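Exercise 7. Given the encoded structure of a 338-residue chain, write a plausible sequence.
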């Protein structure tokens, strides 16, 4: 089997890798229908996270169950399934309260840019669709594995409810799907912060009512101006830098909520500033598994089309170009087909 391997900064190769097999009786092997490149894959790709040894890549996946271990009871060969980037048993105390990405037995699923994938804890991790989907649904179903679930968590953590005034920091795929999530949750106003015309257009399609092109303190000032000096009820932080985090906190009204899902890189919060900010902060790695049943329904009924974030589709063997296009911001998100 050949799959993606990251060797170092800007060096992804499509190479021979070990074919995955059942290791534990709770495992499943999937034949991947589609996978993709995540914004977070760009951190090691750009050398910001070190790559000590050649590393298989990919943590977003959907596909057909090929084989299951002897202890797997609910997942069956032939089913089309979606799972999260963290395998979870879905039964431990953390899972029971909806934080499957902090499962006591969580395992990272990180080898998905390949034709075959081993998923641990199959019964707890994977959710089957009502039937094998038609091809046109596959991009949207794939987004539920991470990017849509993460945007949804950002909106949920920021307590978006009907009538909310929302701001979204970040116009990557997660931020754009955060806009879509806020729209689904009934937000009255969604201010998307973006200075890229193609991303602004998609943000509008997903429900943004205002586009804010300024960033940092100027972005905060613009949000304040648009909300009579008050700030937004709910702010989704979908980047993970010091600037974006402070932009989110300072754009939030007193008593409002920040949902932060950008993986932090060098973010440090000043205790005194946080104290006087008077906002709720909630975030972390999205418990995508919690939302899968609900989001599968929305895609299945064609109520949402999050697959629109894929503006580049490539055969898996061109994975290196998929990374390059995202790194150079020529593509919002690359879908890969084995
Ligand atoms: Zn658990």
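Solution.
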């Amino acid at each position: 089997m050949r799959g993606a391997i990251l060797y170092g900064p800007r060096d992804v190769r499509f190479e021979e890798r070990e074919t995955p097999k059942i290791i534990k009786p709770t495992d499943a092997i999937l034949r991947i229908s589609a996978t993709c490149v995540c914004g977070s894959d760009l951190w090691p790709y750009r050398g910001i996270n070190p790559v000590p040894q050649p590393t298989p890549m990919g943590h977003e996946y959907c596909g057909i169950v090929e084989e299951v271990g002897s202890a797997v009871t609910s997942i069956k060969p032939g089913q089309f399934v979606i799972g999260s980037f963290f395998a979870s048993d879905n039964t431990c105390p953390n899972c029971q309260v909806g934080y499957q990405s902090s499962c006591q037995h969580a395992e990272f699923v990180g080898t998905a840019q390949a034709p075959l994938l081993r998923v641990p804890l199959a019964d707890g991790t994977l959710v089957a669709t009502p039937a094998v989907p038609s091809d046109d649904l596959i991009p949207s179903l794939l987004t539920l594995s991470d990017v849509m679930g993460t945007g949804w968590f950002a909106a949920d953590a920021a307590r978006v409810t009907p009538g909310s005034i929302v701001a979204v920091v970040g116009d990557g795929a997660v931020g754009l799907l955060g806009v879509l999530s806020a729209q689904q949750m009934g937000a009255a106003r969604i201010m998307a912060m973006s200075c890229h015309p193609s991303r602004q257009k998609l943000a509008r399609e997903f429900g943004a009512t205002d586009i804010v092109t300024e960033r940092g303190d100027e972005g905060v000032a613009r949000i304040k101006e648009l909300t009579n000096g008050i700030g937004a009820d709910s702010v989704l932080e979908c980047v993970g830098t010091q600037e974006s985090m402070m932009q989110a906190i300072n754009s939030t009204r007193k008593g409002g909520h920040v949902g932060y899902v950008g993986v932090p890189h060098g973010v440090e919060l000043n205790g005194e500033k946080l104290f006087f900010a008077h906002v709720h902060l909630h975030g972390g790695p999205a418990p995508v598994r919690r939302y899968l049943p609900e989001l599968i329904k929305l895609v299945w009924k064609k109520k949402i089309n999050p697959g629109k974030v894929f503006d580049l589709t490539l055969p898996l063997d061109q994975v290196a170009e998929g990374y390059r296009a995202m790194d150079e911001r020529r593509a919002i998100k690359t879908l890969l087909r084995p």
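Remark. Residues 88-89, 91-92, 94-95, 103-105 surround zinc ion (CB under 6 Å). Students should compare their own answers with the one above.
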